[in-house]
Amino acid sequence: MTDELVGRTALAERATKQLETSGSVLLYGPTGIGKSALGRALVADLGRKGCRILSAAPSNSEAGLPYVTLLDLLSSQLDFCWQVLPDHLRQPLEVALLKASAPDTVRDELAVRLAVLHVLRRLATTGPVLLVVDDIQWVDPSSLEVLTFCARRLSEGVHMLATEQVADGDLPVMAEACPEPALQLEVPPLTEPDVLGLLRQRLSDPLPVRTARRIFTASAGNPFMALELGRAVLRHPKNVSPNDPLPVSSRLKTLLGERLSDLTPCAHELLLHAASSPRPTTTQLAGSLGRPIDAELVEAETLGLIDISAERLRFTHPLLREFVYAEATSAARRQAHAQLAAVVDEPVENATHRALATQEADAELAGTIEEAATVAAGRGAPGAAATLWRLSADRTPGTQPDERARRLTRAADDAAAAGHLAESADMARLAVQTATTAETKVPALLLCADAVWPERDRRVELLSEAFAAAVGDQRLEARVRIERSHSQYFDRSLDDALDDARTAEELARAAGDTEAVVDALSAFSSVLMARDAGQSADAVLQQAAELAQGLPLTRSVVNARQMAAMQELFHGRTAPAIAAINALVDEVREHGAMRWLASVLISATAIYERSGRGADALAAGHECYQLMQDIGDEPEVGLVAAARAEWAGGTAVIGRQLAEAALDGVRQAGNDEWTGPALASLGMIGVLTGDPQRAVEAFDAIAASGEAAMPYDPAIIPWHADYAEALVAAGRLDDAAALIADIRSRARNLDRAVILIGLARSEALLIAKQGDPAAALDLLEETIRTAGDRVYPLDLARCELTRGRVARQARRRSVARTAFLDAIEQFEAYGAPAWREVAETELARLDVPSRTRQPSELTDNEQQIVAMVRDGSTNREIAAALYLSVKAVESQLTRLYRRFGVANRTQLLRTVDRPGNNG
């Protein structure tokens, strides 16, 4: 409907259905929840469909003015009113709307109601009418009585869309003013992904993801509050750190300040301590304040500011916490943290309070905070760890620049793992500026290079600077060469990438850096897989996977284990692949490393897709895209994963939309590594939807880009079989044959037997197109029979689908029926609804000719033959187009001649084209 409707699609669909069929809709919820935005979108949509809109937006200040809402509703229809109303009803309405003067009487009030009812009924005879009342709670009593009177008497043709402001948890009370049946729809808070999407869409500049998530928490999903907070953050003169209060806009201050204005100073101090603590309890607050707090608790609870349950204190709205903390002076906040530190024992919370209680450098305090950062990271909270590392760096004395740089680098590393990329980049740059030795500067430079990865020139420059600083130190040089290998791989400079990966492995082994060895081997295997060295790549990757076992979870270890799971998939060992990727997803999720999780979910999507777990693929693919979009890390790559997930377990329409968006995204980002996969997704969806021309265009674009566009190993992204199928459908049979032969040879050389199933399917289509459907059918049946257990289930199901198509062309209807039914059953089992729909459509086509028909009627196949005869096609051309042999075409024409009593093509056309015949 409109960009405003973030997260409201289902609600809008329910409301639209109700308004287009019968009755009314009442949208209700608290201030700022988005009732009016949803209402505007619904009105615009219905207006485009020809609905007559009568609208009013009453306000509190006008609620005492009689008939003002009625005047707003009818203002665009006054001429119509005067035309259709009889005099005895027209005059009272004119008086009510201040269009004439006369004394009011009881009879006049009834006449006004009857006049409005008459107008609405007459309007309804010209087309659907929608009454729109935004903020119906402010309708003046006179207008409300008229609306309620009409609502009880209106039937079809007049509907109402109203919004009503209610407090959280309350129900609406204005439904009686809405014509029946009235659907009451609560407008709920937005989810976190929706709030983050709203902020991206509506703000002038992007926010750091951690700040955006804080805004979601503070706003409790209220879009008005979220946007107000977001704009306030952008207006703030300094970056808002995780420990800074969120700035509150003047509009929100007005909204919240009234609720706090009656607090006593002691109660205000209590709330500041509560706002300064992540998990306040009454015992903790009494200890930090050093006095009984019962009276202040009762005061705040009576004013509706806090709830207390089992000693836990909670603000009734999260924004109250942010407001109380933001409105306090910095000195008052430091004092609160100092008092809380004295009563809190938990190490991470205690260290945080101590850090925020002072702005002075203190080596001992910096060390304590570092210990807390390590604890937080071990608990699976890299975002919290990054905050603590930054606090530790900020409290490090200026006489220890490399210690400060080390802590900043650790902060940047943990922030990157948590997906806080903007913060990570800022801290890495600060670490580079602070560091005085290679030991502290090189890791920071590598993080800086990672932060600007899409910017090739800047990335190469930073890696060169890091290499110059690292030369002479085996461990540091190995780390730099690994990143340089990744960079060259990304830029498709495979020879250079291979050299750096090999050298990095040697240096890492010499330095005794096992994690770096794992990383170097992973990089080495990636380059080998991109070239003609699949079995060598398997061996190298196996080494990396074995070394990674038992190591703590780091980005390098995650990458090696992720690649090992994919290696199982490349060999068709889907069960071990699923077990490995599930374990890794769980561990990374528990570790809290959202950036790593997004990467792992790319592999999870592929493994689920090829293992016949469509629903799991769909969930993983969309979570991957959502994460990448939220953290701002190559969202176009997430789109590729989501598109493939839709291809396997969703819908073709959404899959095409995502694939097209992915292709636009990778091209705009200059992401050459993922351009090929994006094109492959688009081509495969073209095959799914029966659009071979579009599929061929996408696949041809990959082929035209050369070998570097896609990995050499056909199992990494299995797209070649679909390319061949599209080529066959487009009539490029020689190209299809050459492609099948090339990829079959490659798959056998690399021990990728799992790829042969799809190629056999494409080859069967090629053989059928060349005029031998019987041989094609034999090939398909042999392929299915000998497939074994190392196969992608969806490939087998597609073989059944193809078997049905070829059998139908060969006029073996019973075989075709069995194949289509088997395909439907398998697609259903594998959670592939788009493919199931294709198979069901094919089965329905098969069933069409099975009805009892007159001798003069033609089957679908016969109609195709006659149509091609009419176009002047030869028997050979007809055979090639319909996957039949020339003899089969000749036999069918002979039967048609006999049935219609004719001797040749000309007579046949004359007969079937005669009125009354089905030709």
TrEMBL record:
<dbReference type="InterPro" id="IPR036388">
    <property type="entry name" value="WH-like_DNA-bd_sf"/>
</dbReference>
<keyword id="KW-0547">Nucleotide-binding</keyword>
<dbReference type="GO" id="GO:0005737">
    <property type="term" value="C:cytoplasm"/>
</dbReference>
<feature type="domain" description="HTH luxR-type">
    <location>
        <begin position="851"/>
        <end position="916"/>
    </location>
</feature>
<dbReference type="GO" id="GO:0004016">
    <property type="term" value="F:adenylate cyclase activity"/>
</dbReference>
<dbReference type="InterPro" id="IPR016032">
    <property type="entry name" value="Sig_transdc_resp-reg_C-effctor"/>
</dbReference>
<dbReference type="InterPro" id="IPR000792">
    <property type="entry name" value="Tscrpt_reg_LuxR_C"/>
</dbReference>
<protein>
    <submittedName>
        <fullName>DNA-binding CsgD family transcriptional regulator</fullName>
    </submittedName>
</protein>
<dbReference type="InterPro" id="IPR027417">
    <property type="entry name" value="P-loop_NTPase"/>
</dbReference>
<dbReference type="GO" id="GO:0006355">
    <property type="term" value="P:regulation of DNA-templated transcription"/>
</dbReference>
<dbReference type="InterPro" id="IPR011990">
    <property type="entry name" value="TPR-like_helical_dom_sf"/>
</dbReference>
<dbReference type="Pfam" id="PF00196">
    <property type="entry name" value="GerE"/>
</dbReference>
<keyword id="KW-0238">DNA-binding</keyword>
<dbReference type="GO" id="GO:0003677">
    <property type="term" value="F:DNA binding"/>
</dbReference>
<dbReference type="Pfam" id="PF13191">
    <property type="entry name" value="AAA_16"/>
</dbReference>
<dbReference type="InterPro" id="IPR041664">
    <property type="entry name" value="AAA_16"/>
</dbReference>
<dbReference type="GO" id="GO:0005524">
    <property type="term" value="F:ATP binding"/>
</dbReference>
<keyword id="KW-0067">ATP-binding</keyword>
